[in-house]
Specification:
By secondary structure, chain A is an alpha+beta fold. Helices cover 31% and strands 31% of the residues of chain A. A six-stranded antiparallel sheet of chain A has the order 1-2-4-5-6-3, with helices on one face. A seven-stranded mixed sheet of chain B has the order 3-6-5-4-2-1-7. In chain B, 25% of the residues lie in helices and 33% in strands. At the A-B interface, helix 1, strand 3 and helix 2 of A face helix 1 and strand 3 of B.
């Protein structure tokens, strides 16, 4: 199973907040065990979706300076309801404060406008090279991969909004919007 | 991905405490996304291992007849990362079990060092399906199979220190145990 | 506040800070559990566990948070608690002043009734 708990980032305000979605499909193999008679998203995956949203907010806000952005603390993680296959969990993370090492966030997840889960999180960020200079190339590799993943997750449809967020080139967005006039002029040439 | 976040119990005292281990291996798919090129165990999956250790301890106290689900984590702290090749040791202690739920405190150790700690709340679920029948999360035989994989009945002890007996709810679900009981009677 | 009550208040406050993730200074005697401190039903279980452990007392189900009365068709009609239901609440929770609630006994109002002081009074009543 791929450990990607978000399908798309729908809103991003660097340094402030992020909203992302995860749809639950019956084809996700772990559902066969959780639970065999009552398949629902595991609570820790709801937490992981909120953690990953928080991590993307941190990464995008600092232009991917660190390779490792990890959960250090979770407080008051409260589950109000289940997420069933066919439903979409919309997660939002708001940055509360940040030090050089750690970020505090308030997070929640909603299904159909109802609150399903909420928590307060602390995420830490660092590079492996800080402990061992020889690991700098591993950091560079992780950061490169995470940038590519971010470009897949966050594709704002508005060109100017995409450019100002500093991610994915306008060309990426335009390729998806086919203009009939352009096709005709290309055919003439 | 199977939803098994502990490999087996090494200690289990009914209603009190349980210890389980989880070994981390590069052959696990999810490690290659967290993160691509440098893998460490996601802390939420460590939390799940802690919850499974404590949840089965709570569930066993009710003879595996109650539906136990994760309801709240009041506090979870992760002090350092765990890496492929590490073995995580989860130890759960029951703090309280009541009719509507239970609370356990759980730790995670790697090489004798405290890697994580959490306070976990479980609710005893009374769920009905669309027909109004009581919903079971697991078919008893599926649950029994999982408990056997975890070696629960090999290391388990009751509160008096005697080997844990297979619970009637579990034994009834197993055709082999049922037929042995009939043959013996 | 007499010494013993002050001690009880401080211990109750610590339980609420741990259970609800609120700050010390948010837990005032007048603060309501649901409205001010944001307690939800799963938090009630957490609070009961912590109070039992801290004070070495037993809190029977529904004695502190009477969800069974508030969800019982016998005591609730059209979203309001009946006089029979109010009588039940009074017996169950002598440590709470129900006068305001009686004036407008909507079930949805009940959550805003219970204050930190009520909790302190309850714990005190259970101590030897």
């Amino acid at each position: 199973m791929r450990f990607k708990l978000l399908d798309r980032i729908v809103d991003l305000k660097p340094g402030v907040s992020i909203t992302a979605v995860k749809g639950l499909a019956l084809s996700e193999d772990y559902l066969a065990d959780h639970f065999p008679q009552f398949p629902v998203m595991p609570g820790v995956f709801m937490l992981e979706a909120m953690t990953q949203a928080s991590a993307w907010l941190i990464r995008a806000s600092e232009d991917f300076q660190h390779s490792f952005v990890v959960l250090r603390e979770a407080r008051n993680v409260k589950y109000a309801d289940f997420v069933a296959p066919g439903q979409t969990l919309t997660v939002t993370a708001e940055m509360l404060s940040q030090t050089e090492r750690e970020t505090k966030l308030k997070v929640h997840g909603m299904v159909d406008g109802k609150l399903n889960v909420s928590a307060r999180l602390v995420l830490a960020r660092y590079n492996l090279a800080e402990g061992n200079a020889a690991r700098a190339s591993a950091d560079a590799h992780v950061i490169r991969q995470m940038r590519l993943r971010f470009d897949v997750l966050y594709r704002p449809t508005d060109c100017s909004a995409g450019a100002s967020a500093g991610n994915g080139s306008p060309a990426t967005v335009n390729r998806l919007a086919i203009n009939p006039t352009e096709i005709n002029s290309a055919a003439i040439q | 991905m199977r939803w098994f976040w502990i490999d087996r119990f090494t200690e289990f005292t009914s209603g009190q405490s349980a210890t389980a281990i989880k070994t981390l291996s590069l052959s696990e798919d999810h490690l290659h996304d967290h993160f691509p090129g440098a893998s460490c165990m996601p802390n939420t999956l460590i939390l799940e291992g802690m919850a499974q250790t404590a949840g089965l301890l709570v569930c066993e106290h009710g003879g595996f007849t109650k539906q136990v689900v994760l309801a709240k984590v009041s506090k979870a702290q992760f002090h350092f990362e765990a890496w492929p090749g590490d073995t995580l040791t989860y130890r759960a202690q029951v703090q309280s079990i009541k009719d509507d739920g239970a609370m356990a405190s759980v730790t995670s150790h790697v090489n004798g060092q405290l890697q994580a700690e959490a306070e976990i709340f479980f609710a005893h679920l009374e769920q009905l399906n669309s027909r109004g029948d009581k919903l079971e999360l697991f078919d008893p035989y599926d649950l029994f199979s999982w408990l056997r994989l975890l070696k629960l009945y090999e290391v388990g002890r009751d509160a008096d220190g005697n080997p844990l007996k297979i619970h009637p709810h579990m034994a009834e679900s197993d055709p082999h145990l049922r037929s042995s009981a009939v043959a013996a009677s | 506040m007499p010494v013993q009550q002050a001690e009880v208040f401080e211990k109750v406050r610590n339980c609420l800070v741990d259970a609800l993730g609120v700050d010390d200074d948010e837990v005032t005697p007048e603060a309501t559990m649901v409205g001010d401190l944001g307690a939800e039903s799963i938090d009630f279980l957490d609070i009961v566990f912590r109070l039992e452990k801290t004070f070495n007392i037993k809190i029977p189900r529904g004695e502190l948070f009477p969800e069974d009365i508030l969800s019982n068709a016998q005591y609730v009609r059209e979203g309001k608690v009946t006089s029979e239901g109010i009588a039940q609440l009074k017996t169950r929770m002598p440590f709470v002043d129900l006068t305001k609630f009686e004036a407008d006994p909507r079930v949805t109002n009940f959550g805003n009734l219970l204050t930190v002081q009520d909790l302190v009074n309850y714990v005190q009543s259970k101590l030897p």
